């Protein structure tokens, strides 16, 4: 099993004097999955983009397997896989070509592309253009892209948004597999059933702050259900 550790301490982001994310801290070990839940504009994407190393934090520290983003960005980036929520695929590229392109950027061997295609169940469709794929299949290509470098930390922004129940369950199944291998996963979601199915830890965000966290069981005990905790995080009684 992969050895992995993520330590986040007092992470914050201010943009034009507005606080977007405030004092977020957590600690995750091998195979742990954190779901970041919250309403629109809660600060989830901003938090995830800081973890992915594509947005500079205003305060705090992020460490993945003892590598700090602030000290060595290249080594930090090598530990991270990131699945954005708004990726526009290039017209004309097949699934295999898209993955070969990403693999070449990271100087990874071609064989790894075949491995991830098999992992996400797209080996038989690899010569088809990604722009002809369904949303569920495109999410698999993005997932494969994020897993290319076997990252210690996989970060996913709203990975199941727009997926029907079949693809959502398939996605949960894929995540279970990589969790078993020891990868740490942090993902954002509005879909509490996904958090319920796969997360070890849940964090609720509102206006950039952590307004409640714990294991799924802790949250059920404290609030009654994930839905009740979500409503409370939004300030809905
Ligand atoms: N570059 C920016 N400049 C100004 N405001 C920003 C910027 N980026 C984010 N914000 C604001 O910060 C807040 C949090 O945005 P963010 O996208 O992180 O939220 P979110 O929880 O991911 O929302 P959603 O679920 O709608 O995607 C929003 O009010 C957004 O308008």
From TrEMBL:
UniProt cross-references to InterPro entries, sorted A to Z: AAA+_ATPase, ABC_transporter-like_ATP-bd, ABC_transporter-like_CS, ABC_transptr_haem_export_CcmA, P-loop_NTPase
Swiss-Prot/TrEMBL keywords: ATP-binding, Cytochrome c-type biogenesis, Nucleotide-binding, Transport
Listed Pfam families: ABC_tran
Domain ABC transporter: 2-232
Signal as UniProt keyword: no
Alphabetical list of SUPFAM superfamilies matching this protein: P-loop containing nucleoside triphosphate hydrolases (SSF52540)
PANTHER family in the record: ABC TRANSPORTER RELATED, ABC TRANSPORTER, ATP-BINDING PROTEIN
NCBIfam families in the cross-refs: ccmA
The name this protein goes by in its record: Heme ABC exporter ATP-binding protein CcmA
Source organism: Paenibacillus cucumis (ex Kampfer et al. 2016)
């Amino acid at each position: 099993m992969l050895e992995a550790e993520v330590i986040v301490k007092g992470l914050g982001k201010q943009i034009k004097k507005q606080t977007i994310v405030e004092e977020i801290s957590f600690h995750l070990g091998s195979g742990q999955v954190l779901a970041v839940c919250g309403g629109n504009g809660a600060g989830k994407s901003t938090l995830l983009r800081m973890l992915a190393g594509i947005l500079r934090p205003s305060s705090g520290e992020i460490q993945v397997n003892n590598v700090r983003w602030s000290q060595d960005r290249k080594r930090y980036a090598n530990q991270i896989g990131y699945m954005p929520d708004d990726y526009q695929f290039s017209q004309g590229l097949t699934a295999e070509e898209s993955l070969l392109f990403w693999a070449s950027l990271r100087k990874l061997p071609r064989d790894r592309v075949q491995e991830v295609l098999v992992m996400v169940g797209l080996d038989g469709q690899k010569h088809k253009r990604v722009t002809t794929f369904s949303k569920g299949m495109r999410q698999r290509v993005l997932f494969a892209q994020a897993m290319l470098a076997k990252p210690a930390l996989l970060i996913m922004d709203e990975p199941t948004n727009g997926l029907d129940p079949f693809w959502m369950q398939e996605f949960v199944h894929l995540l279970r597999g990589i969790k078993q291998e020891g990868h740490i996963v942090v993902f954002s979601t509005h879909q509490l059933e996904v958090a319920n199915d796969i997360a070890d830890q849940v964090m609720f965000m509102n206006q950039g702050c952590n307004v409640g966290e714990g294991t799924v069981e802790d949250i059920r005990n404290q609030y009654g259900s994930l839905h009740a905790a979500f409503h409370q995080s939004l300030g809905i009684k």
